[in-house]
Amino acid sequence: MSGSSVYIGIKQHLSRRLLPLAAGMGVLIALLAPATYVVIEQKSVQHLTDLYAGDLAAKLQDLALEAPELWKYQTYKFADITRGFHPALDLIGFGVLDEKGTPIAGYSSNDVNKMLGKDLSLGEDLLYTKGTAPIVFNNRRVGTVEIFVSDNRLKQNTYVLFCISSAVGVLLAFTVFRFPVRVVGRMEESLAEVIDALQKSERKYRSLVNNIPDVTWTADNKGNTLFLSPNLPRVYGFTPDEVCRDPSLWFGRIHPEDLERVKDAFVSLFLEGGTFDVEYRIRRKDGEWIWLHDRAVGTYERGGELLADGLFTDVTEHKQVVEKLAEQSRELARSNAELEQFAYVASHDLQEPLRMVSSYMQLLSRRYKGKLDEDADEFIAYAVDGANRMQRLINDLLAYSRVGSKGKEPQPIDCNDVMRQALDNLQEAVREAAVEIVVSPLPTIMGDEVQLMQLFQNLIGNAIKFHGDDPPRVEVGAEARGADWLFSVHDNGIGIEAKNFERIFQIFQRLHDRSHYPGTGIGLAVCKKIVERHHGTIWLESEPGKGTTFHFTIPAMKVSDDLKGGVS
Amino acid sequence: MNHPASCGPVEIFLVEDNPGDVRLTREALKEGKIYHNLWVAKDGEEALAMLHRKGEYSDIPVPDIILLDLNLPRVDGRDVLARIKEEEELKMIPVVVLTSSEAEQDVLKAYNLHANCFVTKPVDLEQFMMVVRAIESFWLTIVKMPTRI
C-alpha cells in the first residue's frame, strides 16, 4: 500500500462521519467525532464554502418571497440561520445596516473590525477563503451571500463571517462567529499525531514488507490471493498482480506430492482456525523448483469475507543443506557399520584357513621333528610362529571390532567391582613383576561392564608390562571434574616420548620390538574406542624414564541414570 | 555294560565340508585309544541321506555319536541338527556341534535345537587333539547311553 492510498482510505472512512465545518486557506477542517479532524484538499474547501453560501442564499430568497420589500431587514434572522451550521460556533456579533452603512441593529462593520482586531481584517487580510452565492428574486439578482473563513495556520481563532450585500455591493447584514483556538489547536494536534503515527506505521510496514526476505500474503477462503508483498518476484518470478489475478499460478504450481498437504492445511486454517504451517515445493516462473516454508495463524473477517494473512520463506537452500547433512550422516553410519561388519567378517573368515596352516604345521612338527634336517625344523618353527602371531592379530582385530558392534545398553557400573575383576585377570602378571597396586575408591558410572573391565585391564596391564628398573608401582584413582569423572592410571615405568602420544592409540602400532615387549599393539586402540563409546576422551602424560599417567574421562551419572539403576 | 564301546567299533559320524578338518579329526581319533569307524558327510544333504540310509547308504550303521559342523553347503548344519532332533530314530544320538564359530547366537541356536554340546574348534593343534579326545572319552566312555534295540 502506498502512502497516498492509506490517506485516501482514511479520508473515505472518516468522511462519512464527518461534519465539515470550517475551511482555511488551503486547509479545510472537518469535524470528526468530538476532537479529531482531517485535512482535505483546497479544492474541496472552496467547494464547501460555496455550498454554504448557496445554501444561505436560498434561505434568504425564501425570506424575500415572504416579504419582498422587507427581506433586507430580516437579516437579523441570519444569526439563527447561520448558527445552525455548528453548535461549537460562537456568535460574537451581527449587524443589519442601511444603505449608507449605518447599523439598524447590532454593530457596524467598523465595530466588527475593532472586535476582531488584527485577527481578521476584512478585505485587507488575504488569509481567508471566500465562498459566494447570488440571491435571486424574480429572475433578478438582488444581492450576494459571501462567507469568509479565516485561515488557522497562525494558530489563531478561526472566524467565520457571513455577509449579505445588495445587488450593487452594499453590505446589508453580517454575522461573525468564532471557532475557538483551543478547539482548533486540539483538533490540529491530534490530527498531526494521527497522521504522523499513520505515516510512521506505514513506513515501518512498507520497509518491513519490502526488506524482509519473506513474502507476506492475504488470501480468502476460496483460495484467491488478495495481496502479495512486492518482493514476490525475487522469490517466485511472478509478480503479485499476476498471482492475484490467476489463482492457478499458485496452487497449480505446487508439487503434486505436496499439494494435498498444503490444501489440507489451508482448509483447516479456514475451517478450524488452526495454524497453517507447511513446507512444500513450488515451481518458479523459470521452471525451477523451490522449497517454501509457509505459515499463517488464524483468520479474520473483512467486508463479509473470511481472510487470512500469512508469510512464506524460501527455504530451498536450508532444505538442501539439511538433506545433504542427513545424506552424509546416513552414509557415514552405513560406512561405519560396513567397516565394523567387514572387520568382523574378515577376521572371522581369516581364522579358517589360518587354522589349517597352523594345525598342519604343528602336525608336521609333531610327526617329523628330528626326522628331517635342522633347517626343516627351523622353517617349521618360523611358520608355526607366524601362524600363531597372525592368529593373535586376528583375535585382537575381532576384539577391536566387537567394541563397536557388541556394545550393551549402558548400566550403572561400580568401577571398584570392575577394577577387582581386572586385577583378578592380571593376577599372574602382578605376581611375576611384584607390582604394588594402589587403588583409590572409584565411582559408579553408566557403562558396559565388560568393556570397562577391559579398559582397566589393558591400562594396568600396560603399566605392568612396561615397568622400569624401580620396583613397579601403579596408582589408580578418580576425581570429579565438572560433569565428568576424571580417571587416572599412573605408573613409574619406562615412559613414552611425547612424539609417540598419538601413535600409541592407533591399531597395531608398536613402539618396541616383540622380543622385549610381546603384543600386537591393539590394547590402547581398544582403550580409546571403549572410552569414546562411553562419551569420554583419553590422553596421557609421560616422561621417558619417569613414568606414565593415562587419563580418561567418563560422564558422571545423572539423577535419571540413578533411577534407571534403581529400577533395573 | 550297554555302552556301544563294549561291543565292537564305535560308529562316529562326522559332518564336515573342510577336508583339512576331516583329516585333522581323523588324525586326532587315530591318536586316541577307541576302536572306531569314522563316517564322513561333506554337506548337510549327504548327512541326511546317510542318516536315513537312503540308496547307496543303506548299509551304514546307526551312528553312536555325530560331530556336526554348522556352516555347511546345500543343507545347513543347523537344519541338519533340527531334522535329527525331530526324528524318533535319530533324536537320541548325541550331537556334538564342532564349529569354528564362537558367535553367541550360534551357541544359543544350537542348544535351542537340542544340540548335546557346543564346542569351538581350537586353533592350536594340541588343543584340537585334546578336544577330540575329550569328546571321545566323555561321550563314548563316561556317559551311559540307553540300550539299542
What does this molecule look like?
The complex is a heterodimer of chains A (568) and B (149). Chain A starts with a helix and ends with a helix. Chain A has helices at residues 3-15, 42-66, 77-83, 109-116, 181-211, 232-236, 240-245, 248-251, 256-272, 316-368, 374-405, 415-425, 427-433, 449-465, 523-533, 559-567; strands at residues 19-24, 27-31, 37-40, 90-97, 103-106, 128-137, 140-150, 158-166, 171-179, 215-220, 225-228, 275-283, 289-297, 300-302, 305-314, 411-414, 436-439, 444-447, 473-481, 484-491, 538-543, 547-555. By secondary structure, chain A is of the alpha+beta class. Chain A has a six-stranded antiparallel β-sheet with strand order 5-4-9-8-7-6. Chain A has 16 helices and 22 strands. In chain A, helix 10 (316-368) packs antiparallel against helix 11 (374-405), helix 11 (374-405) packs parallel to helix 15 (523-533) and helix 14 packs antiparallel against helix 15. The model of chain A is unreliable at 1-45, 118-126 and 564-568 (pLDDT under 50). With 149 residues, chain B is of the alpha/beta class. Helix content of chain B is 39%, strand content 17%. Chain B has five helices and five strands. Chain B has helices at residues 19-31, 44-51, 77-86, 104-112, 125-142; strands at 10-15, 36-41, 65-68, 95-99, 117-120. In chain B, helix 1 links the parallel strand 1 and strand 2 (36-41). Chain A binds chain B through residues 348, 351-352, 354-356, 358-360, 362-363, 366, 391, and chain B through 18, 20-21, 24, 27, 100-101, 121, 123-126, 128.
